[in-house]
Amino acid sequence: ALQPDFARLADHQRANAKELATPMALAEVAHQTLQRDTVQLHQLEQALPSLAAATATAETTLAAAATAHEAAQTEENRLRPLLEEA
């Protein structure tokens, strides 16, 4: 975005081009970084609802698995004495 302005400098301004090159390059990199970060932020904002829904689903699944594990453990404890007798 800033490079075309640099290219349009008049000849007398090009004498200072070396002094301007580093700040111009840094400004260009900063501009590109800002654009990239803005795009990534937008993508994250759009993904947030589905990530929240997936988290809720995972929490529900974890609770169900914990309940099932506890039930299985209880059943194992109930059956263990019977199996030891057999």
Provide a compact summary of the structure.
This protein has helices at residues 3-7, 11-14, 17-85. It is mostly helical.
* Average pLDDT metric: 84
Shape: rod-shaped
Distance between the termini: 83 Å
Major sheet summary line: none
Q: In angstroms, what is the radius of gyration?
A: 32 Å
Order of helices and strands: HHH
Number of helical segments with 4 or more residues: 3
Low-confidence stretches: none
* Fraction of helical residues: over 70%
Q: Please indicate the percent range of residues in DSSP E strands (runs of 2 or more).
A: under 5%
What structural category arises from helix and sheet content? mainly alpha
Domain count: the total is: 1
What's the β-strand tally? Answer: 0
Q: How does this structure look, described?
A:
Residues 65-86 are annotated as: Disordered. Residues 75-86 have a biased composition (Basic and acidic residues). The chain has 86 residues and is an all-alpha fold. The protein has helices spanning 3-7, 11-14, 17-85.
Show the helix and strand layout.
Layout (H helix, E strand, L loop, with lengths): L2 H5 L3 H4 L2 H69 L1
Q: Can you give keywords for this protein?
A:
single chain; 86 residues; mainly alpha
